[in-house]
Amino acid sequence: MKKLLLLSVILMVYFNMNGQAGAHVHGGLLAGQFNTTNLTPEGTTHRGWRVGVDARLNSGKMFFTGGVHYFKYSFDAADGGEYFKTGDSFTIQKGRFGLGWNLIEIPLIMRLRAKLMGSINLITAPDDRDLPSQYERMNDGYASLDFGLGVDVLFFTIDLEYEKGMLNAVNQAPDTKLDYWSLTAGVFF
Hints:
Elements: H1 2-18, E1 22-34, E2 46-57, E3 62-74, E4 89-106, E5 110-124, E6 141-153, E7 156-165, E8 178-188
Antiparallel strand pairs: 1-2, 1-8, 2-3, 3-4, 4-5, 5-6, 6-7, 7-8
């Protein structure tokens, strides 16, 4: 029985590391800022959390990747604060697609990855949210470029990403692109 269990674990690890195609379910923390100090004063960030799933298609050094994500973040910027107490918050539903690369691989044990993705981000904001006077309302969505590094250890994953806003997130307001750093952990299967 022990040998059968050991063989099952070895096969699971083998297929998870050698079979590039699969899904990556993850969650984590994020901190971001608008390009204007009117919405994000100097030294502050908008904090929150995210969950999502990304898929990897293809095998080899380069692969296609895409995913869907859900963010919840505090609209009020702070110099500290908690990630899960978002208070007056907004949500983002994200769809993204791009390319990934395996930079370093130790078969059956570890893989270091990089990725570049384009995203469409849909914003849901409370109707009664009071924005500063020069900003009337949030846009329904915006686009971003997502850059990231990740590591797979067996079937566990950790990813560090930077998301650079390409379009303004506030309606008819210049310099309101939204940029984020996020750190997530999850499993690949």
